[in-house]
Automatic annotation (TrEMBL):
SUPFAM superfamilies: HD-domain/PDEase-like
Boundaries of every HD/PDEase domain copy: 19-132
Pfam families hit by this protein: HD
The organism of origin for this protein: Paenisporosarcina quisquiliarum
InterPro entries associated with the record: HD/PDEase_dom, HD_domain
UniProt-recorded name of the protein: HD domain-containing protein
PANTHER family recorded: HD_PDEASE DOMAIN-CONTAINING PROTEIN, SUPERFAMILY HYDROLASE, PUTATIVE (AFU_ORTHOLOGUE AFUA_1G03035)-RELATED
Amino acid sequence: MNTIEKCELLVKDIYNRFDASHDFQHIERVRKNAQIISQEEGAVRTDLIELAVLLHDVSDVKYSGSEGKAKENAILDELGLPLSDRQKIVEIIESVSFSGGHEKEAKTIEAKIVRDADRLDAIGAVGIARTFAYGGAKGRKLYDWSEAARMNMSESEYRSQKTSSVTHFYEKLLLLKDLMVTETGKKLALQRHEFMLAFIDQLKIETSEEK
């Protein structure tokens, strides 16, 4: 069993305890996105990318709270990676989260690829499905057309306030197209972004909120 296979085995059980928006299928889609972007962007450390993808939501505070980082470190310990590779993987993971627009800079090509791969899975048809899956798991309204999107908020405000699922489109999903950092990611995001706009227009019609 190689390092990537071992990592996959260690994280599967963790992700399968999360709701459908962040389960192991999400990881598989992000991994595929990362492979596509990597092929277009040129020579990179694909091993670091794959390990970062596999680990990137283990420490997600939405699910793991304060224990998440310890779980991530325990898996990295078990993988027995060289210290330099371990540090690079941690840096990639730390640069992925949107955090209400307060994300850390993605400095390496590997970090940029993983960030774009994860954000691609947050938009388009699958992004819509994930948004409502998460909202359902958290007991959020489908939509509230009177609710104002928060465009300037702290990370704690972003994580703590329960806005409707559609409001989340305006607070995050519809912003991601312009936040892609690789040329491939930018190209792939365009069609998904347009699909979300069409979905919102149709939802407004069906809820008698068209403008």
